[in-house]
Amino acid sequence: MARLNILEFPDPRLRKIASPITDVTGKIATLADDMLETMYAAPGIGLAASQVNVHQRLIVVDVSDEKNAPVVLINPQIVSTDGERAAEEGCLSIPGFYEQVTRPATIEVAAINRAGDPFTLVAEDMLAVCIQHEMDHLEGRLFVDYISNAKRQMIRKKLIKQQRQQA
Ligand code: ZN
To answer: What does the record give as the active site (predicted)?
Structure first.
């Protein structure tokens, strides 16, 4: 397994729309494993392939306290939603910033697993937030798109400054 480099906002590659995965090959399974390793190391609770500069429809999440409940979702699609809930979100691509985002509270998702088999999952609470956040990445959408333009520009400026200092 290998740790992957995570793109940071405002990198324009985070705005690419991911393509569907037509065949769950060993390469895709390895990518899922590498993404899980990268997510756990960060540490984070979710990661989309878009964030590691692979523009294919694959996300990984694990919201368990023990970090022993990884879920791999390939070509995830929201089948139904229920309710609404505001929760604080952060993002490995926007380190150090957290904002409230309102999303459906419960979702039913259809996806393909790491073995290539279709499954559906009903998610609520943190898992629902996390899956929706990661699915947004596949559309080139970030949690800062839900907040005010002024706040987003402030975060953008601070991150650019931080990235320059690191370079
Ligand atoms: Zn994110």
So the answer is: 134
1 falls within a domain = no
**37, 66, 88, 134: the active-site residue:** 134
Categorize the per-residue pLDDT at 163 as very low, low, confident or very high, splitting at 50, 70 and 90.
very high
What is the identity of the amino acid at 113? Answer: N
Do 110 and 120 form a contact (C-beta atoms < 8 A)?
yes
Residue 84 falls in the annotated catalytic set: no
Prediction pTM value: 0.97
Specify the DSSP element, H or E, that contains 37.
helix 26-41
Please say if the pLDDT value at position 68 is more than 80.
yes
- Are the beta carbons of 143 and 91 closer than 8 angstroms? yes
**Quick one: pLDDT at residue 147?**
96
Distance, CA 91 to ligand 1 centroid (Å)? 4
Residue numbering of the annotated binding site for Fe cation:
91, 133, 137
How far, in Å, is the centroid of ligand 1 from the Cα of 29?
21
- Tens of pLDDT, residue by residue over 96-116, are 999 999 999 999 999 999 999
Q: Does 57 map to a domain?
A: yes
Task: Say how many Å lie between the CA of residue 47 and the centre of ligand 1.
Answer: 6
105 within a domain of the structure (yes/no): yes
Residue 94 gets which letter from DSSP?
S
